């Protein structure tokens, strides 16, 4: 059975054909038009005219985006687990860059980082920004957000939560805080600003009656406030309240809506939130472990005491056999210098404590999912995913993200909604595929600059052919002020990860690192991993680089570098 949105789009194409023939006047409630050839008979014209008078029945859509969520946490979340059982679960879902800002820019536009030119979290050079809000705005990405296409197709759009790094208020000449600029593409705009990393005490935006951006304060409750009052001011719960307000306001509208809910959890905090609570991953008070009971607290479906470091594939794996490999023009290989040279500063005790705190931290997100699903109803597509993964002792990289390995690049992707056939999917999906998927469901055209591909049809047809490869790219940049992903609390090592491009297939991962950290020079070396183990255990490039599967990966990797959107799309098939 075709999904409802597909049937509606087919009907809209008939209306579009009649319009092209000059036989139909389209009103504001007509479904998004496609393209088709209209026959000369009067019957299609009558059908199109009837459609023009009907209510827009395209589905609402909600994207729930978590921050630094790693896959081992999913089993602790009751509602997310229920979603996975009732909906489509994409087992091979990845992000194009395992770093907050480049990943979010790619998701919002459907473009690769080499197209968005958003390569890091911070601008680095104000004149020629390479990351953050400055780069996102400078290089035309604001105008390429998929939300603009949804608006043009008749959707009401809303945004709640974490947006783009360094999208912040500024200080005016009179010393007052000036709201950040208005972002086109969103009818409702409730961005939580960077203070929300701490969990409590931050500002958010809203649009006044004239559509101008205003600031709202969310003060941190006093130390002696009740747990209920503290948790009401917790960033995840403020995000939830904004989201429910939007849903309740628009669920009975004639026009469909799209809402992005971008939680700050389970990202590590910046600064201290409350005296005496020293965890780098602060859960809501209702979920925290009691003093003196490190194995207590609320870890959802799994008792906190039952979460162990064995849940983290490859934890503590010795890195002696992971050094990259040089390949010369004659096909000969030689060992390259190791780039994993950081001191292993994350102790087992700290890693386990932080793992459990991260599990406690996502329980408030899970409760939000429950309430969002109840408010939205069964006729709404709800997508649950993350901007990147997170390593916590794997690869001997301490804690953080940015690496090309499964711990960092693989993310959950669960979808529920009308006509979704429950079950697991094997197709490879990247977060740049979300934008064209949302546009596809809305019946809106996908712009030519989009590098991702829609996976909408696999929601109702799980066995349809889809992507077979995922690509990653990452740009090294020495950290500058405003960098939020140093993860110093877990011994983060984002600064040592070199630039790379990579391709991931079912059999293996091929990474080309640039060991030269200058912006102009190159020093290429390779890592190749077979997935006959559940993590990147040993670099086998020297012994396997001439084998057919490795040659296929190398051919695709070479073609991916700087690829145009159409080429990028073709390489995943």
UniProtKB/TrEMBL annotation:
InterPro entries reported in the protein's UniProt record: Alkaline_phosphatase_core_sf, Sulfatase_CS, Sulfatase_N
Signal peptide, first to last residue: 1-20
List, in alphabetical order, the Gene Ontology terms for molecular function in this entry: hydrolase activity; transferase activity
Q: Where are the transmembrane segments?
A: none
Entry-linked PROSITE patterns: SULFATASE_1
* Cytoplasm keyword on record: no
Spell out the protein name for this chain: Sulfatase-like hydrolase/transferase
From what organism does this protein derive? Nocardioides turkmenicus
Q: What is the lineage of its organism?
A: Bacteria, Bacillati, Actinomycetota, Actinomycetes, Propionibacteriales
